[in-house]
């Protein structure tokens, strides 16, 4: 796999990451792209301590487990929120909507957390984002070495989190391009309006001078009437 052409960015995984006793891979919460990164997110009026808190909270609410939802919201860190969320019994509604919930959570993070948006948007367009965990849904389904040594088509996992990161990156760049075009268009309109005002002013001056020539007097002179 040629990483120079398609660089891989590992989401929130420290180089020394290891699997904990519970089977969860310890994410690097210092990486702003990680869902474990501590940040305040306000989603539907509820303040969360990280994207992971928000995602697991919404899962608990939609699955009708209010007690777990409150525990997740108050969890000290993202790993604790994840552990609480995995205990919530899922339902069909959640399974069919969790992808959209994750996307909306990341979009909110992109808007509300500037450092996340900046790091995401300064990545190369060819970058493949991946969470190198044994999670077959959100990650590559492989460890770091296995992820690097196999093409994405051969990863065991679907890497849904990485795919969503890429999608949000493209949407944000498209939005920035659209805003830039709008700004340029507005600036051009302002310049045209300024030019039109200048032309009107010049025409008014020329008319005044023409009227003065016809009357044979200077309309700005107080003594013109006496001289005649």
TrEMBL record:
Matching SUPFAM superfamilies: YbiA-like (SSF143990)
Segments passing through the bilayer: none
Biased composition (Polar residues): 192-222
Domain NADAR, chain residue ranges per copy: 30-168
InterPro entries, per the entry: NADAR (IPR012816), YbiA-like_sf (IPR037238)
Biased composition (Basic and acidic residues): 177-191
Name recorded for this polypeptide: LOW QUALITY PROTEIN: uncharacterized protein LOC111113750
Organism: Crassostrea virginica
Gene it is expressed from: LOC111113750
């Amino acid at each position: 796999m040629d990483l120079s052409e398609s660089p891989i960015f590992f989401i929130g995984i420290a180089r020394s990451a290891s699997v904990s006793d519970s089977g969860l891979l310890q994410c690097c919460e210092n990486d702003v792209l990680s869902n474990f990164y501590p940040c305040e997110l306000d989603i539907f009026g509820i303040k969360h301590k990280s994207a992971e808190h928000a995602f697991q909270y919404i899962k608990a609410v939609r699955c009708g487990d209010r007690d777990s939802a409150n525990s997740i919201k108050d969890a000290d860190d993202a790993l604790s929120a994840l552990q609480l969320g995995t205990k919530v019994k899922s339902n069909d509604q959640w399974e069919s909507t969790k992808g959209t919930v994750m996307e909306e959570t990341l979009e909110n993070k992109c808007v509300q957390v500037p450092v996340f948006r900046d790091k995401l948007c300064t990545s190369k367009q060819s970058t493949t984002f991946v969470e190198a965990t044994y999670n077959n849904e959100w990650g590559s389904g492989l460890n770091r070495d296995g992820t690097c040594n196999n093409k994405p088509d051969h990863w065991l996992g679907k890497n849904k989190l990485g795919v969503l990161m890429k999608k949000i990156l493209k949407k944000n760049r498209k939005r920035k391009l659209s805003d830039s075009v709008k700004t340029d268009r507005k600036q051009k309109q302002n310049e045209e309006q300024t030019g039109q005002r200048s032309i009107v002013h010049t025409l008014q001056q020329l008319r005044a001078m023409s009227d003065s020539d016809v009357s044979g007097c200077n309309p700005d002179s107080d003594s013109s009437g006496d001289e005649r």
